[in-house]
Amino acid sequence: MTSIYPSGTSSSTNGSTSSANLLRISGMASGIDTDSVVKSMVSGYQTKIDKANQSKQLLQWKQEAYRDIIKGVKELQEYFDPLSDKYLLSGKTLNINTAASDEASIVSATASSSAKAGTYKVNVSQLATQAKVEGSSKDSLVTVSNLSNWSGKTLSFGAGSSNITSITLSSISSETRDSTSMSNLVADINKQISASSTLNGKVSASYVSDGTNYYVKFTKTSTTDITLKASESNNVSDVNSDLAINSGITAGTLLTSSALGFASGNISFALNNGTTSSTVSLAVTSKTTLQNLMDQVKSATNGGVTMNVDDTTGKISFQSKNYGSASDIIITDTSNKIMNKLGIDNTIEGTVGLSGSTTLTHLGFASGNISFNLNNGTTSKNISLTVGSSSTVQNLIDEVNKYNKDTGVTMSIDAAGKILFSGSSSNISITDTSGSTSNNIMTNLGISTNAKTYTKGTDAVVAITGPGQSAAITTTQGSNNFSLNGVTYNLSGINNTTNPSSNITVTANSDTVVNNVKKFITDYNTLIGTINTKLTEKKNSDYPPLTDAQKESMSETQIAAWEAKAKVGILRNDDQLSSLMTQLRGIFSSPVYSNYSSSNTSAGKISLSFGQYGTNSIGIDTTTDVTDGGQLVIKDEKKLKNVIENNFDDFKKMFIGKTDNPDLSSNKSYVGSSNYMEDGLFTRMDNILRDYVAAPGVGSDGTYSLSGSMNILVNKQYDYSSYGGSGKSTIPDRVYSQTVSISKLKTQMSDAETRYYNQFTQLETALSKLNSQQSSLSSMLGTS
Q: Which residue intervals define the domain Flagellar hook-associated protein 2 C-terminal in the entry (predicted)?
């Protein structure tokens, strides 16, 4: 009997072979190509999967195309972003006026669009100043009144318990006090000090200048007490009294240091800035510095007054924050003679030469409470501080400045080591109220309360003759920066008889505005051209997305070329883009109103109109080519410039104006509303683009999904269900739905394949058994 196996095949005689082992073995008994047959049987599923993948690919391409459009819109939105250099809506970019000064060292200016073009003659007779209280230097300074007083003369020092040590200076040929001669003088002093075994390493010399005088500054460089002695033979005549040499005054000078002399304990004084009085109080210890006192002054006056020390001159001062005649600082010392310790005398600047870390005891303060009253002209404040061995000048400054909010007075140390009391354009008076001779605050700080201790703030006085004016108008300002008739003046100097006035020239230049408008039109047209192309390009149905099987037989270059053609027309006649284009074109076809009424649309319009025709047109129009999507073009640049130069207010209203009576009803559409009709063209565009792609500066990569109808459509996924049917038809929802469908189809195809292979396995098993029985029968009949 002939075998049913095809020739060249062998039968399986293993009747126990499981169906699992035969599941993917093709035609062992039947000779059938099972894989091909099964593949053909499930091809319907594969076709559905391919179509679903193609639909998903089209959605993803559409999403990419949308995102490119969104990126373009976000670039255009830079013109409406306050943080962008292109920003148009503030009016700065559309300002035609520029201002130039012929003497910027005296006055500079900027001009707004409301300023009148022409020349403004400016005479500055007085600058606005701050009220300031300043003490004498607390540094170890000797005035150089004449270089001949030092030439070949002797400087005598007492160093600790040693006898008087004298050094003789070299002869000085120059009589001119300047930086060179002063440098030579201190170099010679330091040379002679270095040559002395008693003085070397214990004291050094430098020079400082306050702009009027030159001083030799002696600084202690060791723990040894050093005194510059007077009345010695052949001594420098400028040394007219013994001078205890300290280590110099800085913000870190301890209040209890010999330079400041505060004693440990509480100190306080009142600061008055003309309107508010504050009490500055500080507990002085051996660690309290001048910086602590300066901080206390600032804190007490809420920054209205600052206390400073001049590290160069060693003077301490108080200075107001504000400028003008209303600025005043009045300091009333209520304990410990604080102002004297800070070096404040008949000027408002102390000759202190200390730092914030200088201890108060170093300045002569004894331990205990100190207090003084600080008055700025209208408000007084009691300042108190407990002086301890570690209390510093800074502790006192902190206490004074703590009441700055009330007094407007600030205590500080300047670069020369001077303690300063200053206050907002006000008088400063300081009254020591401690009643203690050892803790006389004013004395220890170098401030005398028996004489004038402040400089009152002054107003700026300026005479301005504007374009077309025959006489100057004098104005008094409490600041050196002020605006008048559209011009902002910045004063920095004073005119004199040689140069009685400075000129500010305001020039109207429409070219700048025209160029900015041109830049906008170029970028706007680029976006409109891109969107119009996407809306009108025809799709080629011969190029659907490729299936995986098709890609296997193509090169990457061929795939890229195919997909480029397949993407064409992906956004043709798209509803979102069509709506956006319609609204953008409508911006320019609707007139701008100053007062819109739906019942009478012919009234309330501004004087200008968009377009190129008519006496009131601005010379900008849409192109006549209906196929370009409504791009803009400047048809008459001369007319545009004329409008800018002669009707700039309405020009601004037309482009960047905003309604004066906004209707905030949330249920009303913006386009066509009274808000829309009274907004300028750029303002309308800003609002419309926000509706589609959110605010300027948000989501510039095109993937933002929280607001903007186009953003949400392109990027927001609502559907995360297992069946892919609960979304809102956004592109991510539709992509997700296709993904779920593809997954289901793949599962169905896999189940079908398994079922078919099982059926063929059963067939192979049956045929194998049949062949085995046939072989046995043939053997029995002898026919094999």
A: 457-772
Decide: helix, strand or coil at residue 481. Answer: strand
* Cβ–Cβ < 8 Å for 131, 455: yes
- Summarised one tens digit per residue, pLDDT across range 193-230 is 999 999 999 999 999 988 888 999 999 999 888 999 98
Is 672 within 8 Å of 679 (Cβ atoms)?
no
pLDDT on residue 417: 57
Token pair belonging to 699: 């989501």
Residue keyed to tokens 């001077």: 418
Confidence of residue 22 (pLDDT cuts 50, 70, 90): very low
pLDDT band of residue 382 (cuts 50, 70, 90) is confident
| 371 DSSP β-pair partners | 384
Q: b/e per residue, 732-750, with b = 16+ CB within 10 A?
A: bbbbbbbebbbeebeeebe
Phi, psi of 288 (to 5 degrees): -75, 125
Based on the fold, state whether residues 52 and 122 are members of the same structural domain.
Answer: no
The structural domain count of the chain equals: 5
DSSP-derived secondary structure for 675-693: HHHHS-HHHHHHHHHHHHH
Per-residue pLDDT at 645:
86
Highest averaged pLDDT of the listed ranges 4-8, 663-667, 679-683: 679-683
Q: Are residues 662 and 609 in the same domain?
A: yes
542 burial (CB, 10 Å; 0-12 / 13-18 / 19+) is exposed
What is the 3-state composition of the chain as percent helix, strand, coil, each rounded to the nearest 5?
A: 30, 25, 45
Is residue 214 domain-shared with residue 280, that is, in the same domain? no
Q: Does one domain contain both 161 and 120?
A: no
Q: Does one domain contain both 212 and 293? A: no
512 band by pLDDT with thresholds 50, 70 and 90: confident
Pairing mode, if any, of strands 249-250 and 354-355? parallel
Q: How far apart are CA 132 and CA 427, in angstroms?
A: 7
CA–CA gap between residue 330 and residue 421 (Å, rounded): 9
Q: Are residues 644 and 757 in the same domain?
A: no
Winning range, highest mean pLDDT, from 27-31, 300-304, 451-455? 300-304
Structural domain includes residue 404: yes
Residue 695 covered by a domain: no
Find tokens 């020369």 and name the residue: 416
Residue 356 has pLDDT above 90, yes or no: no
Domain that holds residue 387: 250-444
H or E element, residue 168: strand 164-168
Helix (H) or strand (E) holding 742: helix 731-781
pLDDT > 70 in the chain, percent:
88
450 within domain boundaries: no
350 within a domain of the structure (yes/no): yes
527 and 666 in one domain? yes
Q: State the residue for tokens 């196929």.
A: 627
- Integer Cα distance of 268 and 280 in angstroms: 5
Return the bridge partners of 27, or none. Answer: none
Between CA 423 and CA 331 the distance in angstroms is: 10
Looking at the fold, whether 256 and 204 belong to one and the same domain comes out as no
Residue spans of beta strands (DSSP E) within 338-493: 354-355, 358-359, 368-375, 380-387, 409-413, 418-423, 429-432, 460-465, 473-477, 481-484, 487-491
User: Which positions ≥6 away from 92 have C-beta within 8 Å?
Assistant: none
